[in-house]
Predict the 3D structure of the following.
Amino acid sequence: MYKNFPDVDTIPQIHKRLREEGYKVSVCTLRGWVRQGILPAAYAGQKVLLYYPNVLKVLKEGTEPPEEVKRQILRLMQQ
C-alpha cells in the first residue's frame, strides 16, 4: 500500500487484499485484465499499479463486451 494512496497497490498486493475479502481471483487474471485494457493501470518502472475500487467495480459490475462482439450480436439478431 502506498502511504498517500491507500487504495493504490501492486497486483500481488491487490490479489492478497481480494483473497482476504473473499474474492477468488488469480494474479494471472488480474494481469490479463490489465493487458486487455479491462482494468486501467499505472506503471512505475516494471510495477503495475491498480486502484482497488476499479478492481471491485469490474468484479461486481462486469465489463462491456468488445465492439466486435456487439456487432456480431446485432448481426445475429437482425437475421
User: Anything to note?
Assistant: The beta strands are 8-10, 42-44, 47-51. The first helix runs from residue 11 to 20.
